[in-house]
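Ticket #4471: structure export looks truncated?
Reporter: QA, pipeline team
Priority: medium

Steps to reproduce: submit the single chain below to the structure queue and open the exported record.
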Amino acid sequence: MKRAILALEDGSYFVGYSFGAEGETLGEVVFNTSMTGYQEILTDPSYKGQIVVLTYTQIGNYGVNEEDVESDRVQVNGLVIKELSPIYSNWRAKKSLDEYLKENQVLGIWGIDTRALVKRIREKGAIKGIISTVDLDPKSLVHKAKSYADISELDLVQEVATKEVYHWNEGDWDLRKGYIVKENQKPLIAVVDFGVKKNILRRLTQEGARVVVIPPENAQRTIEQIKPSAIFLSNGPGDPQRVVEGIRLVRAYMEKLPIMGICLGHQIIGLALGGRTYKLRFGHHGGNHPVKDLRTGRIHITAQNHNFAVEPESLKDVEITHINLLDQTLEGFRHKHLPIYCVQFHPEASPGPHDALDVFKEFINLACQTQ
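Actual output as written to the record:
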């Protein structure tokens, strides 16, 4: 077993063992409270620029398969776990977690006290860190961690967004058939890809939409060409204030077409409507966050992954529809006069419960009404 060190910018460090690739990796250290779904977490583009700590104790026991991915590669900068399972067992598994990280050139560290690490992140807030298997000098590593740019200064969307327009026709997963292909015709939804998760595309397709995914660069020109029924703004990494193209897009079409956003898309809509965003102390990352729908009083258990939030007091002419019951942060709103609707959480629910899937049905119905 090869030694590895995780060092934080506050001067603390944790000694463990290496798995996956070797070398060094820097990033903002965050923790995820989900018990399962590590493959979905690893491939979620919203984690670009971050080193993810998994709070569940044993990871890797069901291996890695070819279907439970949210993008075409591992997106996290690094992975931190308590215990790496020496074996894996699942009927769909094709390889181990260790092999998967090696293939994707992503570093992992295991054998450290993740409870102590999470406690430190909760106390200090978002903190920069480094994993290394080549430099085992804690002082040197702390210095390197301090030199890493703040995530607000990085243009992470450009690293994960598509460069080409493409069509999507894959729906829900079937036990015997795998993902079901659906050839829908209307409504046509233009999904602006800031780092979209595949399961968002699957849910839109499953609910009856014809989906075309477009790059954020020159999105207005593309939308003029394809003439969609509605616009969907995806999730993605980093600070929403850096996504200027997305903000301009919403302002250009908010009186012309229905618009929906999830996560980063929600924040972009908030900024486009004149609101303000701010960085959370340590973010929301996990599959067990309670969110209240203020319209019905119903409580949804949601999957979340975001470091920024919208200030509800800064918004005008909107109805607040959802709030987080853990810290009362804004989780959803809709415009009072325009067909604009967005949520901060991830209703596609992979991993996580299926409480909030009606969000997609509501948007598809809205798009159908404008045809």
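Status: closed, not a bug. The export was complete when the record was re-opened. Leaving a note from the reviewer for reference: The radius of gyration is 20 Å.
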